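Module 6 notes. Inverse folding takes a fixed backbone as the condition and produces residue identities as the prediction. Think of it as a translation problem where the source language is geometry and the target language is the twenty amino acids. Below is one complete input and output pair. Work through it position by position during the lab.
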């Protein structure tokens, strides 16, 4: 059994673990920052950066923000603490679903520039879900 600090399966390469950690931390910070903006900024101020924010109910904007904050934390904290690390791939899947829904929303509104970022972030979230769920899971304490 592998006794390193990440306590993962020995079949996964060290490079994969490093890549997953880098993606987890970067995505976590991005979703934490974006979610905090959506959850806390006044809607008129937020609508300057994100036009769509003034076109949907404020409660939905806040819900999306809180979901992104929780997902961003879920990408890192369970794996880092090794407390319920199976939550990390679930957070990745949840964020991938949010990005899929966001891409569809932007597609309906013909906001094609926004779709690129949704696809990239969603793809990276799927990578974390796959990597931490199947290929290089973190073992609990």
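Target side of the pair, the amino acids:
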């Amino acid at each position: 059994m592998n006794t390193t600090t990440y306590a993962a399966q020995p079949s996964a390469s060290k490079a994969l673990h490093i890549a997953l950690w880098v993606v987890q931390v970067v995505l976590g910070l991005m979703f934490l920052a974006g979610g905090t903006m959506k959850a806390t900024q006044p809607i008129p101020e937020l609508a300057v950066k994100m036009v769509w924010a003034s076109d949907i109910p404020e409660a939905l904007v806040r819900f999306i923000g809180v979901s992104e904050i929780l997902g961003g934390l879920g990408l890192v904290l369970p794996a880092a603490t090794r407390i319920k690390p199976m939550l990390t791939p679930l957070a990745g899947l949840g964020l991938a679903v949010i990005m899929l829904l966001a891409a569809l929303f932007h597609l309906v509104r013909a906001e094609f520039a926004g779709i690129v970022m949704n696809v990239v972030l969603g793809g990276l979230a799927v990578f974390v879900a796959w990597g931490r769920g199947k290929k290089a899971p973190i073992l609990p304490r």
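Reference fact for the lab report: Confidence is low (pLDDT under 50) at residues 1-5.
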